[in-house]
Amino acid sequence: MNLRILPAVAAALFLAAEARSQKDAEAKTDPLQGEWKLMYTQDEKHVEPGCEQSRMIVRADGRVVFEVAAHTMNRGALTFGNSGKLKSLDLKLADGQTLLGVYEQKGDDLVVCFAEAGQERPAGTSPKGTQWAETWKRTKP
């Protein structure tokens, strides 16, 4: 094989793998991609109604923005995976903290249970101890 062709083949394989990796990442965020309204939050003992103006906007690349009345309150990036039988996500916030969570999505309804930064991932979508859950509803454009 011609040695000059080898770098071109390696570059093509790298670019194909990069494109596939990007496509895989987008496929994982596709179900959550869009704008969500906060319906309520809960901890182990209390349930609080959400704010009509609270929004979570998930982009195709996994970036997420949290807004209240169109003002950005926080932002970060989501990474998706599996935790046993549950779907998992890691939310890395702009301040560097990473929150570990699990989620369940049924159509336009989403429940996410998070642990405080530095704590173990929740075992389910019902919060225990210092964990909390957020219930979101996809907004229609």
Write the topology of this structure.
Layout: H1 5-29, E1 34-42, E2 47-49, E3 54-58, E4 63-68, E5 71-83, E6 86-93, E7 98-106, E8 109-114, E9 132-138
Antiparallel strand pairs: 1-2, 1-3, 1-9, 3-4, 4-5, 5-6, 6-7, 7-8, 8-9
Brief rundown of the structure:
This protein has 141 residues and is an alpha+beta fold. It is built from one helix and nine strands, in the order αβββββββββ.
Assembly state (oligomeric)? single chain
How much of the sequence lies in strands comes to over 45%
The span between the termini is: 55 Å
Could you describe the largest sheet, including whether it forms a barrel?
Answer: 8 strands, antiparallel, barrel
Structure write-up:
Helices cover 18% and strands 47% of the residues. The chain is an alpha+beta fold and 141 residues long. Strand 6 and strand 7 form a beta hairpin. It is globular and about 35 Å long. The N terminus is likely disordered.
Give structural attributes.
single chain, 141 residues, alpha+beta, Lipocalin, 2 domains, 8-stranded antiparallel beta barrel, 1 helix, 9 strands, 47% strand, globular, disordered N terminus
